[in-house]
Amino acid sequence: MLSLLSLSSLSSLSSLSSGLFAMPWFKVGGACREPLARRVKAARSWSWLVVVLLAMPMVGSAAEVTTEHVTARLIAERDPVAPGTSVELALVLDIQPGWHTYWRNPGDSGEAPRIAWSLPEGVIASPIRWPRPELIRVGPLANYGYSGRAMHLVSLSVPPDWPAGTPISIRADAHWLVCEEHCIPESGVLELKLQTAETAGGADPRWADLFATARAALPSERLQGALFGAHEGGLRLSIPLAGNPRLQVDDAASVWLFAGTWGLIEHAAAQPWRIRENRLQIDLTPGDLATSADPDGVLVVSGRDGSSTAFSVSAERGAWPATAVGAAEAERLTWPLTLAFALLGGLILNLMPCVFPVLAIKALSLAGGHGGGGRQRVLHGLAYTGGVLLFFGLLGGLLLALRAGGTAVGWGFQLQYPPFVALMANVFLVVGLALAGAVTLGGSWMAVGGRQTGGGVAGAFATGALAALVAAPCTAPFMGAALGYGLTLPWAQALLVILTLGLGLALPFLLVSLAPPLARRLPRPGPWMETLKQGLAFPMLAAAAWLVWVIAVQTGPDGVGRVLAGMLALALGLWVRERTRLGSSRMRRAGGVVALTGLGLALWLGLSTGGREAPAMRLGTSTENGRQALVADAYSASRLADARTEGRAVLVNMTAAWCITCMVNERVALSTAATAALLDEHRVLYLKGDWTNRDPAITAYLAGFGRTGVPLYVYYAPGREPHVLPQILTGGIVRDAVEGSSALAGEPSAM
Predict the structure, then answer these.
(1) How many domains, in total, are found in the chain?
(2) Which end of the chain is more exposed for a tag (fewer CB within 10 A), N or C?
């Protein structure tokens, strides 16, 4: 049989024994008249009686520790155990009413219980097998845990060469967090000695009900064929009913997924479910790690009679954009069509507002290349295209590598890092100064600012790279669908989609370079080019100012001060270099040192903006000059889900400060009195997601609609499928979406 003595029992025995010796009949003198020897003998008899009485309840397979809020027991299902077999242990936590402990994923807060085992060599304890949890709501949060009693099963394996008859000493250092309105970490040391024999003993009848209850609370089986992926800006878990006969949900009162990994979903959000096409579909709200956390957990189906069944879920993650590119687009997109969309999107990208600063460099390159002859013109076109493709290839490779590593990034991710934005601001400052004639960079570097604007093949290559640098964060019509679908393909095909996008961006210049009739239509070089060159300095400087504003949104005044100081140091260094360029060799060296110092200081100050965050961007505007203005709520998946549950219309705007297209759309179509009045009239909730800095929740939302970048505008009419609006907005488009959907709001929607 198994014999044990817990630390708490030893403490109780000691105190009771001391109390017995302190009783009057054990005292020398006083009213008692027995001889001293007889009194000592009586005391010894009482002490052994106490030992026997206290030890009797502990004989058998259990050890116990009592804390302020929990009574913890370690029990063994049977005793003795035979070598080469295993025995089931259970850590049972009896919890004070009103308090709770936690599951392996505690939810929004808390900590799972853990056990540190001290076992003889060769004896192995399995990981905890967790019973299904319950949902414990605490204000707006939700925890996964247990109240009343929690039973954690562990299998203990005994090696075959263990000598029969030799007991196994077991020590379990158990730690748990128990919470009510506040939380208290507690722990206990549980020790027992497990007897061994050639033949294993039978199950201990005292614990039969406890072990039966613990096994019944375990997930019964793993569901087959479960798929997990993005859907309508959220997540969807889809489970076939045909391959899972025990999954009976026709008459279920509730279905709930307990995510096994923190960050997969929002634990407190609603989980609407339905049966469609013989599959159970559960809509979930993405968590902070929705794109990288393991899609597993426990599904609990509760019947109307109060019964419940738990199933283990380990789903396959589907291609994120596959269900949300839009029904029409998803049916149309094929591999050749994806490449065509990418090429067309790259062409349209030339007309996007975010690419406007680069049009200045393109214009100079086109005009300057006319006088270099046919061969030179072709080389310029190929070099420009090579610069575009190289930058897009490097950027695409980095994006694919980050996504493969589980990082939630999208198109334009590089501008979510303030040091990169600071670097771009300095590049535009230098280009602007060169175009204005304040500094001379030389035709061999960037083809701007030198005496001959054409600048050579190296200059054309650098111009193409700079064009791609500025164009990369933007998304154009057709481009979003192509990238969304393309990034779900194998890496070679995905990279080809990105390169095709770059080819579309470079195609106009390439065609002019390769087609003599088009080239002959270009104006001939002349004095006008110097005037144009200096005039085009101002769009470059305006782009630098815009990027400083982006830094302000990302890092606040401190970051702006650092970037401006760096730009001043860089400009001063270039000016000194320019002033000493024609001087003596000593002066030229001194000017070069000053220029390098200014460059180094600008880079250092730009890098120092990393890790700094500004206060949350003010989303929305107040009434201006008596006009009604549009006010936005900050986007969150739970806010969107609550509004849809209430049957309210919602307009979602996914934007970023570095996206000029987004800024133009807001000025032209969204931040107008007419749009504000329209949304107010139809009680439309306006949600704005700020993707200026990296935000996995917004990345997941974009992926849910087959998008990898901003802008994205989605209108949710009550009871209907979400409608994705064009990336170039007008007030009329917004009005048609709201009023058209409102007229149909009463019609049912197929989910």
Answers:
(1) 5
(2) N
